[in-house]
Amino acid sequence: MKYTANEMMALSAGRMIKDGDIVFAGTGLSILAATAAKRIYAPKSVVFFETGGIDPTLDEMPMAVADLRTMSGAALNSGLIESFSIVGHKKLHTIAFLGAAQIDRYGNLNTTCIGDYHRPEVRFSGSGGANDVASLASSVITFMKHEKKRFVEKLHYMTSVGWYKGYDSRSKLGLKRGGVYGVVTNLCVMKFDEITKEIYLAEVYPGVSIEDVVKNTGFEIDTSRAVESSPPTEKELRILREEVDPQKLVL
Amino acid sequence: MKYTANEMMALSAGRMIKDGDIVFAGTGLSILAATAAKRIYAPKSVVFFETGGIDPTLDEMPMAVADLRTMSGAALNSGLIESFSIVGHKKLHTIAFLGAAQIDRYGNLNTTCIGDYHRPEVRFSGSGGANDVASLASSVITFMKHEKKRFVEKLHYMTSVGWYKGYDSRSKLGLKRGGVYGVVTNLCVMKFDEITKEIYLAEVYPGVSIEDVVKNTGFEIDTSRAVESSPPTEKELRILREEVDPQKLVL
Amino acid sequence: MGKTSDISDKVMTVEEAVHRFIKDGIQLSIGGFTVTRNPMAIVYEIIRQKIKNLHVVCHSQGQALDVLIGAGCVKRLEIAYGGNGRYAPTCIRFRRAAQNGEIELEDYSNYQMSLRFLAGALGIPFMATKSGLGSDILNIEGFPKEIRGTGKVAKEKFVVMQNPFNDGEDNVVLVPALNPDVALIHAQYVGEDGTVRIKGLTFADVEQAKSADVVIVTCEEIVPTSYIRAEPNLNSLPNFFVDAIIKVPYGAHPTACYGFYDYDPKYLNMYRKMASDDNLFREYLEEWVFSISSHNQYLNKVGAERLFSIKANPVVGYAVGLDRK
Amino acid sequence: MGKTSDISDKVMTVEEAVHRFIKDGIQLSIGGFTVTRNPMAIVYEIIRQKIKNLHVVCHSQGQALDVLIGAGCVKRLEIAYGGNGRYAPTCIRFRRAAQNGEIELEDYSNYQMSLRFLAGALGIPFMATKSGLGSDILNIEGFPKEIRGTGKVAKEKFVVMQNPFNDGEDNVVLVPALNPDVALIHAQYVGEDGTVRIKGLTFADVEQAKSADVVIVTCEEIVPTSYIRAEPNLNSLPNFFVDAIIKVPYGAHPTACYGFYDYDPKYLNMYRKMASDDNLFREYLEEWVFSISSHNQYLNKVGAERLFSIKANPVVGYAVGLDRK
Fold first, then answer.
1. What structural domains and CATH numbers belong to chain D?
2. What is the pTM (predicted TM-score) of this model?
3. Among A62, A93, C132, D239, which is disulfide-ready with A67 (CB 3.0 to 4.6 Å)?
4. pLDDT value at position C201?
5. Angstrom distance (rounded) from CA B57 to CA B75
6. Cα separation of C71 and C289, whole Å?
């Protein structure tokens, strides 16, 4: 069965969700991943949005986290403070999906600007809730377009802290929980070394070579642990296409 | 027209409320005073409770601030944090009614205990929200039974801060607004000197002598400014009896 | 989607909930306020199961706390107010225990305690407030020095600091977060999806629940998911904060539950009388707690006539014209 | 009792509200979030009245902020996110102004901004959070040093301190309170007693309103007091926090309003295109703001057919099957 990179990405990320996880979603791929996971692997997981929408029915795909579709049929319609207090709640295992313009080898993210902060070449939207979930969630999964200019040695601006400078540097900042679990790109899945907290290539998608990954990554990367990803199953694709995004707004 | 001390107290306190005041009420006399004021002098005043009930209809008298009657027909049913944020809101002129077991010459109050704190002779309910409104409200009005043992040189426990040690000592603590406006007893109304913040006798009720007040007060008190209170009018009494507490739960 | 969680593993009896979650010596947070929405059914069961040495934290508590203290379950208490409104301006057994030095007692104010729960709910170590400056709440510590920083007792009762965003003199009080082991909440509704809805005033119940490690919710009704989700603005807690759900109609009796029933003046007056005498209080416990095997039996003992007399008018939410003296 | 406030002195037109309350150079807080409940009717009028040098504070703002910036009304901005969801992942005029150094810009996160509004609403000088530790949000200051502590600019962007309730290393970030001069809120309902009800997600609107000196509320409907008071658990703000009330149906267009209408994809796509070119953007402003004399005229220009196409299904709250590409 044929499938697109977007579908592979949504499913790769969805597979990382465990049943019972409380999933912080944005728009786009993250909502696909979260809702696919809920329907396929993790029926007891709960999807919520930084805007305060807790477990909406999502009969249609939201185009923004403030979309009315994050409110409809929800368990709670609350607000930002309630939502971030869920992200950081020690009783919950919270998984957050983020995207970024730049990422470094420790999974730190830039969603603020390219160039000097005070007079940027390109200005992006800013942190929104990204810094907060990177600081507070149990675990972060990041979606990236796999390009050399995005996988960089040094971020132009560190909007959101991943493993900071590696080893226990994150914890020393005062961030006692969380960190980045995985990076899902259009080529591969990357994870982080348990000790050094440096990124490594964990999976390459079927049809992608390790070299493809290396030449699109702006820093040296450990590829010794790479395996090939399982391709999407028919069931996964069917649910994704027919139930999760039938309007084809993201796929 | 005959009237009781309770009626005189409720009306004396009610007369201190200005139109538009946001009035923090407890139970008993304070609710009589607040609702009488709203019906007679201050139709735009709003009554609310520390429990989070904002402007309930009060068709029946509540017997506790958590009484269901503080919820019914309200503008908002919220909670304690919302309520105390109203008490201290700089945009609002908030008046709070308090009662106490002991009061000193600066209007500081004790609602915690008689005797040593760690092994009290008599334990009372504690602060509840009293300390908070004494700290945060624009103005406090205190109801007291006028007895020597209650008007004391030194409180056994300072639950709620009035003018603290007089002059600008309250402000120096960090409490930039508020303070006690008046004390309403079964004999008289007392206020506080603008400079020294010491209590003085402002009004004695009809039929009460200044001597009655002096001999029931446990410290020396300035009586030079005392005038006689206006007795309740027929209208005031009628509204109080027929509309505010028809079930005679407090009166 | 619309698929909702299975709550079959959370629905249980009061006996099971207490047995599983309420251990000797835990820090326990009690929801409700004085005479309203006290989680009585659970509290009676805690007494029956003879749980001891509880460290109770609350803002203004009435009936639930007083019975627990009277039954000797409480060792340590952080509180702002112990009273039952005009039925007991100071709770009787609470007063007695304080006067006799039978409990370790620490006084805060209502706002302080609420902010402490909020800090716990937000996962931050403290909240700032102006409440308390200059007062004996700050100056006098109730807990002995040696228990500071042990168990769930905060290392400091308060910290007063200068506001770093102001050059002028500007003190604020930092109150330490609370994260109790268990919170007890009585709500009107729980959905079949586990969503909790408290109607009327919420007091600090939501903050108390979210600050706790374990949340036990008793409720008047379990309602269909479609009903509770038709109005998400009315809901108080999502299912993932809740660990035990027990349907106990009249589970807050003799305290009130908005839209369902009023407080029971006759019971509260009887309680005040019996609580005022040690022998009578032992009788009270025997008769109303220990010899009762279920909440239904308790309600039978209260009697249908009394329960009907306190039934709330569904429009105004309380029992209109109830004799409350 | 049941007597309710008179709101006749608060009900006014958008022209009056802007004229009375929005002055050059004030600190302005904008409610809503990206494509939902932006107070557009008021914002269009601010532009028409040529208010300048605004100091805008918000968490995630979209359309309202972008038009204000594009029209040259904003001098200073504290923000977490400038975007319109998938209709403009980064707001176009915001991006341009930032890149050209046309505004003084300070970045925070959404939680930080929300907590700053909460601190302002609670009347406390700061809130503590773990958000931001280690990041450039803490390390890099956007505002020039000389404006710190002037006007409504906080003396410090942040203060990092050790948690005094913990002996171990445990840093927290203190974020300074916000108390804007004016907050703009768009709500579904205001009662004839002035009570405000926001339906669907409230974002941080309640905190924003309570932190401000002046609150301007536009609403879809003004409803009878008896209606709004039948369900006090649904209400968001009591009347005494509100200074101006304006009934403006579709007052959030082209952003969405739960239960009333969806965002307008055609308008948002048109806006993105026109905002991407300076000349086209001038045309946009002329056509959609300056040459419009009332919100009704604006709605006529949008057209009945379009307004019907985004009308919300009353049960699910949004426009089912709307073409949103």
1. 14-127+179-309 (3.40.1080.10)
2. 0.98
3. A62
4. 98
5. 9
6. 10
Of A44, A57, A89, the CB nearest to C1: A57
Largest CA distance in chain B: 49
Give the position of tokens 């946001």: B22
Residue D5 has what pLDDT?
A: 60
Q: Do C36 and B79 touch (CB under 8 A)?
A: no
Mean per-residue pLDDT of chain C? 96
Going by C-beta distance under 8 Å and a sequence separation of 6 or more, which residues neighbour residue D85?
A: A27, A62, A63, A64, A65, A66, A67, D34, D35, D62
Q: Which two tokens stand for residue C128?
A: 């700032």
Q: CB under 8 Å to D272, separation ≥6 — which residues?
A: D84, D87, D88, D92
Residues of B marked active site are found at 50
- The closest alpha carbon to A37, from A241, A242, A239, belongs to A239
**Structural domains of chain A, ranges and CATH numbers in brackets:** 5-244 (3.40.1080.10)
Token duo for residue C280: 């009578």
Cα separation, D79 vs B31, in Å, equals: 44
Q: What is the pLDDT of residue D305?
A: 97
Average pLDDT, chain A: 96
- How far does the CA of residue B75 sit from the closest CA of chain D (Å)? 6
Each residue of B18-64: pLDDT tens digit?
A: 999 999 998 889 989 998 999 998 999 999 999 999 999 999 999 99
Query: Is the ipTM here above 0.95?
Result: yes
The per-residue pLDDT for range B204-238, each reduced to its tens digit, is 999 999 999 999 999 999 999 999 999 999 999 99
Where b means 16+ CB within 10 Å and e means fewer, C223-245 reads bebeebbeebbbbbbbbbbbbbb
The pLDDT of residue C5 is 60
* Active site positions of A, annotated: 50
Nearest to C243, CA basis, from C271, C212, C221: C212
Percent of chain C that is helix, strand, coil (3-state, to 5): 35, 20, 45
Touch between D and C (at least 3 CB pairs under 8 Å) = yes
CB B187, CB B216: distance < 8 Å:
yes
Q: Work out the pLDDT band at B247, boundaries 50, 70, 90.
A: confident
B/D touch flag: 3 or more CB pairs below 8 Å:
yes
C36-66 pLDDT, tens digit each: 999 999 999 999 999 999 999 999 999 999 9
Do residue A117 and residue D136 have CB atoms under 8 angstroms apart? yes
pLDDT at residue number C117 = 98
Distance CA C102, CA C95 (A): 10
Out of A51, A122, A127, the one facing D109 most closely (by C-beta) is: A127
Query: Looking at the complex, does the CB of residue C39 fall below 8 Å from at least one CB of chain B?
Result: no
